[in-house]
Design brief:
heterodimer, A: alpha/beta, Peroxisomal Thiolase, Chain A, domain 1, two-stranded antiparallel sheet, B: mainly beta, OB fold (Dihydrolipoamide Acetyltransferase, E2P), binds zinc ion
Chain lengths: 389, 117
């Protein structure tokens, strides 16, 4: 079978945060920006892959109709926090395998309509019988991780300080503010050791990206190559043979497959956008992805290795902690950030000379598995984009 | 007989507090088995989010049962501190004679723990 490389020709997003805009308005703003950046119209899109978690059946179709689409095949997927990234993966594969030539990727969530407070566990999970809500799943990971590796609450809080500082330059982020370690630790306790500023906020938002087969793209078009994307589902957790904190195994396995498919080594990567729904999540993720040894993520972060000038800037967008976490939108927003960074138009938050990056999103619930599903995608600059403004 | 009815693989170490039809680890058959109710605290968190009728400050602990699965236990705010590695006994939060046998799941009951002195 002839494989065709997908080129990301455009991306867009709404503002993120609790807001009065409805799903139609959020999706339309993201899609219009992505299509304009790609210099394409709705009529040139062969199919839409859309990630969302909470809406009623049909909300996605109504939103895409509002954005100017009808009778275009629309695939709607759910994979918890990684719904948008799974939509991206499937759309990317559809181009790579030749099913479609031009696809639109969309993620959205009007979360404030469905969730007040923390995200609950599924009432069918045994954990729900004990009143567990999702932040506690990460808090249990954090307690265990800190015990195992001698990590302090101050070190954990560094992740929040760093990502909020990154978001100072992201005008679409929900939380933009300079915070100190002390302020992070003294914010409202949620589930020990996690405090409010260590948890991603409930948010409304949408993001979009346009992919097109390389054969249909001008050689000098601004854009980003999708070197590889990979999806894996969770294994049994805990594993009696190898006791790791929740999510580690799934992120590790998915990253290894994606990097092998892309032919990349860690030293080739200039930046990452990863799933930092909670501070502990970013530490577990960068270790599971192999950017530092197990148990070293906190020291690595404290040493500045995951910010500008460090060995691997992580979440220059501000991450989920700052941008906000409208579940279905998140993965596509991560991909959109990669588009802006790798085409050189990220403005004051631009990672200098960035030409290759990874996006990782982990979706999970208390299902007795190392996660529900994880996507890792690898990108490389095709051409920088010349700004006209 | 002392112990919680859980799912146990007839061929490997897989144990589960939630119902499975077949071992998802090795594919062998599973059986309901009374497993020891003693175990070791794997991790814990004090929760400050109210949930239903539960007020702030309750604690959730993951306990690795001896020859059993990892189960989540709840202790109320006033219960003394718990640390990783504590040896504990896991008990139904609401004692019931027939819940375990009647439910399709082997242990669809809320659990709590007490630290073994
Ligand atoms: Zn087995």
């Amino acid at each position: 079978m002839k494989r065709r490389e997908p080129i990301m020709l455009g991306a867009g997003s709404s503002d993120f945060g609790k807001q009065s805009l409805n799903a139609e308005q959020l999706v339309t703003s993201a899609v219009a920006e992505a299509l304009e950046a790609a210099n394409l119209t709705a009529w040139q899109v062969d199919a839409i892959y859309l990630g969302t978690v909470f809406p009623y059946a049909g909300t996605a179709h109504r939103a895409m109709r509002a954005a100017g689409f009808a009778a275009t095949p629309l695939f709607t997927v759910e994979n918890a926090c990684a719904s948008g990234t799974l939509a991206f993966h499937l759309g990317s594969q559809a181009v790579r395998l030749g099913e479609y030539s031009t696809v639109l990727i969309v993620g959205f969530e009007k979360m404030s309509s469905f969730i007040k407070g923390a995200i609950p566990t599924d009432p069918g999970d045994l954990e729900a019988l004990q009143s567990m809500q999702l932040p506690s799943m990460y808090a249990l990971t954090a307690t265990r991780y800190m015990h195992q590796y001698g990590v302090t609450p101050e070190q954990l809080a560094q992740v929040s300080v760093k990502n909020h500082a990154h978001a100072l330059h992201n005008p679409r982020a929900q939380y933009r503010g300079q915070y100190t370690v002390e302020e992070v630790l003294s914010s409202r306790p949620i589930s020990d050791p996690l405090t409010l500023l260590q948890c991603s906020p409930i948010s409304d938002g949408a993001a979009a990206a346009v992919l097109r087969a390389r054969e249909m793209v001008d050689d000098d078009a601004g854009g980003v190559r999708v070197l590889a994307s990979h999806f894996e589902s969770g294994a049994l957790w805990p594993d009696p043979d190898h006791d790791q904190v929740w999510n580690w195994e799934l992120i590790h396995r998915t990253t290894a497959q994606a990097m092998a498919a892309a032919g990349l080594r860690h030293g080739d990567i200039d930046l990452c956008e990863v799933h930092d729904a909670f501070t502990i999540g970013e530490l577990v993720t960068i270790e599971a992805m192999g950017f530092c040894p197990e148990g070293q993520g906190a020291a690595f972060t404290e040493d500045g290795q995951t910010t500008y000038g460090g060995s691997i800037p992580v979440n220059p967008s501000g991450g989920l902690l700052s941008r906000g976490h409208p579940l279905g939108a998140t993965g596509v927003a991560q991909v959109a950030e990669m588009y802006w960074q790798l085409t050189g138009i990220a403005g004051p938050r631009q990672v200098p000379d960035a030409s290759r990056g990874l996006v990782e999103t982990m979706g999970g619930s208390a299902s007795g598995l190392s996660g529900n599903g994880c996507v890792v995608a690898a990108f490389e600059t095709f051409n920088q984009k010349v700004t006209t403004t | 007989m002392d112990g919680h009815r859980m799912m146990a693989c007839t061929a490997c170490l897989f144990r589960s507090a939630s119902w499975v039809s077949i071992c998802p680890r090795c594919g062998a058959g599973v059986e309901r088995r009374r497993l020891p109710c003693t175990g070791t605290v794997w991790s814990h968190t004090r929760v400050h989010l109210p949930f239903g009728e539960h007020s702030n400050g309750y604690r959730l602990s993951y306990v690795d049962l001896d020859d059993g699965p990892r189960v989540l236990c709840r202790t109320e705010a006033e219960y003394p501190e718990i640390i990783i590695g504590d040896r504990v006994r896991v008990l139904p939060l609401t004692p019931s004679d027939n819940l375990v046998d009647a439910a399709p799941e082997p242990a669809a009951e809320a659990l709590t723990l007490e630290v073994i002195a």
